[in-house]
Amino acid sequence: MVERSFKKEVEKLRLGEGDEFAGEAILAVTKALLQSGVAYVGGYQGAPISHLMDVLSDAQDILQELGVHFESSASEATAAAMAAASVNYPLRGAVTFKSTVGTNVASDALANLASGGVTGGVVVIIGEDYGEGSSIMQERTHAFAMKSQMWLLDPRPNIPSIVAATEHAFELSEASNTPVFLQLRIRSCHVHGRFPTRNNQAPKLALRDAMENPVRDIDRIVLPPASFMHEREKVESRWPAAVEYIKSNKLNEIFEGKRSELGIIVQGGLYNTLLRTMERLGLADAFGESDIPIYVMNVTYPIVDDEIVQFCNFKQSVLLVEEGQPNYIEQSISTILRQADVTTTLVGKGVLPVAGEYTSQVLRAGLVDFMKQSASAWQPPDDPMRTVAEFIKRIEHNVPARPPGMCTGCPERPVFASLKMLQQELGDFHVSADIGCHLFSILPPFNIGNTTMGYGLGAAGAAAFNTESGKPAISIMGDGGFWHNGLTSGIGNAVFNKSDGLTIVVDNNYSAATGGQDLLSSRVNNENRSTEHAIEKAARGVGVEWTKTVRTYDIAAMRAALREAVDKKNKGPKVLVAQSECMLNKQRREKPAFKKAVGDGKRMIRDRFGVDEDTCTGDHACIRLSGCPSLTIKPNPDPLKRQPVSYVDNSCVGCGNCGEVAHEAVLCPSFYKGQLIFNPNFLDRILFGIRKALIGWLQRRTENRRLGNA
Amino acid sequence: MNISSDHQRPITIAMLALGGQGGGVLTKWLVDLAESNGYRAQSTYVAGVAQRTGATVYCVEMFSQAEIDRVGRDPVFTPYPVPGDVDLVVAGELAETGRAIQKGFVTPNTTTLIASSHRVYSILEKEALGDGIKDQGPVVEVARKAARNFIVFDMDAASEESGSVISAVMFGAISASGALPFSKQQFERTIQESGRAIEANLLGFSAGFAGAAKNVLPLVDEAIASVKPTGVNGEALEGRVRQSLPDSVQSMALHGALRALDYQDVAYANSYLDQVEKACEVESTVSTKGHDFALTTEVARQLALQMCYEDTIRVADLKTRVARMDRIRQQLGAREDQPVHIVEYFHPRIEEVCDTLPAPLGRFVLASTTARKLLAPLFRKGRHIKTSTISGFLMLRIIAKLKRWRRRSYRFGVQSALIEDWLTQVYAALIHDYEYATSIANCIEMVKGYGDTYERGLGRYREIVVLSAASDGNKADLVRKLRTAAENDEQGIAFAQAKAELGTVH
């Protein structure tokens, strides 16, 4: 069950001529795909385009009506290779994934696709995970566009611009026989707005027609001599055709301003931040009316030389706002200006930081410097950050960092609690981590994991540590990473190279970190996909002999399995499948079901854990082996004690991890499980009555004696 | 020239929400509220980030549709709140209020700041070996100065009391703040039209509206709660405390004496008071000017905790008390007639059992490897005991009844020796200086708990006492420094480093 259902919202995809769409960008992009007559869509989930996949998944009915094929691809490489359908046929296709990590995975297929070129328009929608909230290395997608010569659209972050860019992307792709990247920045994906809709278009050619009437053109296949021809085609025909399309359709925009001696060139995606910053500096108004002329690059690759020269010519100086590094655009524009003998000063990373996100505060500093250099009479208004600097200083030690962690009741927590206990027993191990929720293990309270080399590459990341040792390397891999590539890159590799290492595959039934999408090993019945393919079986299939599947919450069994797996007498690669359902997904399903069952009068038991505040010592060893959000602290109610006591708050889902950990690690006797019985049956009520009477009587007696004494 | 002066500006809202606080829902309500009432709205957020307990910023902007029509152009909305430009900040937790200030979202003359006074502790605060809680006093103080209007109340309590969710409480508080140009009815209609959990959300809305209107920061009571004896023995002890001890010590000493009485018996409580009186006497021999018997008060507190250490007897007693079972029923939300089971998670080690054995036997078992080996299988696994059943309850009551033999137990002897040694150290330190004595008196706090926690605390406490006694620098400072290091991490990395630094200083 995915994080968010779009079942209701996808109805907006049926809007037609003369209607107005109101909603989020991802939904608007989907609508634009349908308006463009797309024939197939594929992709791999990941922030910030996970919801795009979820929208498509929830829109199966609408897609089927139009004859659009949608696939949840096995990986980004699969998704990109899927676009091969557009090489020979006038089929429009879109694929989507997270960048730059997904683009890395896809780049083999993308390079081949871009070499041979396309007949039908191909749009690669990339969710750019850069800056605030990002969970990946900070790199630029721009480099991929340059190396494969694919075009890169970076539209202004408002719904009409994003929709227009999506539709133009197909046209541009077909006009230049080149696949096109459409870049959506992380906050743009969830931007809310409206646009006038058009009717959806069925694909011009049905997939089935193409399959039944195949077309073959050897010149489109990447093998010499065609590949040499492709390289020339790229620069001799496709590039000029793209530039022509961009120019004639005015994909890049110029906003005039009265200070014509100055200019600003900005990537489309940064336009709104720039404008608001200028407005705060008194250089623009709230509607985008600017003092300084602005050239908005909604297409950041290729750069249109003529437009640049025309914009810059006769200006004294121009500021280039280009986020990320290296500064490809700045280098390019410098060359363009130099070759055209334009003497305008180009200011870019000189006043703006070389690296990092261009937030409004960063842009403000850069703009102020630019204006001081270029317009000496101009004075900036007071910097609001200066007025609050003193406040910020005053509380610098009072605001705790809030590192992310696993959710309440997460089934991955006991895996790392067990690993931590194993390390307490046997000393630290080299742990090769992977990508997924489980990577939070590197943070407090577990502090486990040495490297992460990419999705599904946990086991591969430990490949070098394949030598005689008292402590085998331990690798972590999620079920998502396992099916993405880990089965071959890690497990198969360990078998082939006779590794003695241990790989723990965290199997929580979903691609959980990306929002709970189904996988090959998901234990649900998904009518559109084939599921329930066990990970252990797959590992055995590639030749692993030591495999085990352990329920994660069974800490005793988990510890025993770990001890056995790291025993040096135990040769050969080991795969330990740590199995329990993602708690977020489970609760999403079970909470309403529990409520309903109680409402229907069924006997139900709700578990909740607790810590006795009068026996808790305030040492928090339990928290250091858990980190569960519901296991928290509160001021000590005992007037003699000062240290806060552990406390289980109302968000507890009764997974039992904290109690099991206290048990296994021999922490303290303060944990208890409270079980509340709903709709008790006859026996429950009778027993309850007897117990209440007897225990109550004993308690009253003791209590009276105690109070009389005290 | 400021060209923006001709036009109106957008209303900017920044919300800092934690996982599970429903920031997404609140965002949607705000967008709906604006769009149904003559405004154009935009919202942005980073999906899924808050969920995993991190914090995330939701940004909503609203622009008057009439103004848009008048100008004839679309406004440019920001994807992220800009410092100096945020009209309304809502923080769903107190430390997040501080974060909003750090991000520059809260500026004087511009920002209405609505904050919840409750805390959701960060893992870094929670995992500390002692008290890792960051003081939010300065955050509140700064918030009052930094915001144009600062509204604070406990939203968590408000949502719990109203049986609603915190997002609804926030929505109510926003309405009450008057920061947005919409009436209370328009807010309420937004909830009604959203069509989900309308009744509960309206209750939460009202609670939030009322909370913001009252605008009260709940006070944390720092003073020691007073305690009243309920029986003759307690009253006698109170009489002794009132007569023999200075005013400033009385409250703590009474707590301690009643605790010792509850823990063991009258004689035990009186022997506790003997020690407190002695501490008071010793303290009086040195100049106590300005200290107001702080040392005696600290001794009174720590002595009570050390004398009433948690052994299996005590734990069994506390776990079978009526107040405890009522508390659990209440936490579970059990109705009067609803059956509840309580399953205790016990895993005593051989050490804990030996603690309760008669001293010679306990000492023998602990010293004998054969005996330990023979008994080991009994302690390998933890035990689940249902105190809600008669057998489970009786089992614990029987253990609690062992109280009368406690004085002969192994641990009692060990503990008495520890206490005696500690008091000797405190008095010896007092000859040196008052601060040092107080820090040693306080340092015994590290000796607490069960299993590894107890052993680790005891070991480090002893090292600190020895090291500080041997030092010729500022001893009180040294104790504080070593103590902080000792409580920094379990493995003792910081402690080892602090000790190593000490070596190089000498």
Describe the structure in your own words:
The complex is a heterodimer of chains A (710) and B (506). By secondary structure, chain A is of the alpha/beta class. Chain A folds into five domains: 16-248, Thiamin diphosphate (ThDP)-binding fold, Pyr/PP domains (Rossmann fold, 3-Layer(aba) Sandwich); 253-394, Rossmann fold, CATH 3.40.50.920; 413-585, Thiamin diphosphate (ThDP)-binding fold, Pyr/PP domains (Rossmann fold, 3-Layer(aba) Sandwich); 603-679, Alpha-Beta Plaits (2-Layer Sandwich), CATH 3.30.70.20; 682-710. In chain A, the strands form six sheets. Chain A has a seven-stranded mixed β-sheet, with helices on both faces. Chain A has a six-stranded parallel β-sheet with strand order 16-15-17-18-20-19, sandwiched between helices. A five-stranded mixed β-sheet of chain A has the order 9-11-10-13-14, sandwiched between helices. Chain B folds into four domains: 3-214, Pyruvate-ferredoxin oxidoreductase, PFOR, domain III (Pyruvate-ferredoxin Oxidoreductase, domain 3, 3-Layer(aba) Sandwich); 221-308, no CATH class; 312-410, no CATH class; 411-506, no CATH class. Helices cover 57% and strands 10% of the residues of chain B. A six-stranded mixed β-sheet of chain B has the order 2-3-1-4-5-6, with helices on both faces. The longest helix of chain B is centred in the C-terminal third of the chain and has 23 residues, at 410-432. The termini of chain B are far apart. Residues 1-5 of chain B have low confidence and may be disordered. The interface between A and B is large, with 132 and 145 residues. Strand 24 (671-678) of chain A pairs antiparallel with strand 7 (340-346) of chain B, so a sheet runs across the interface.
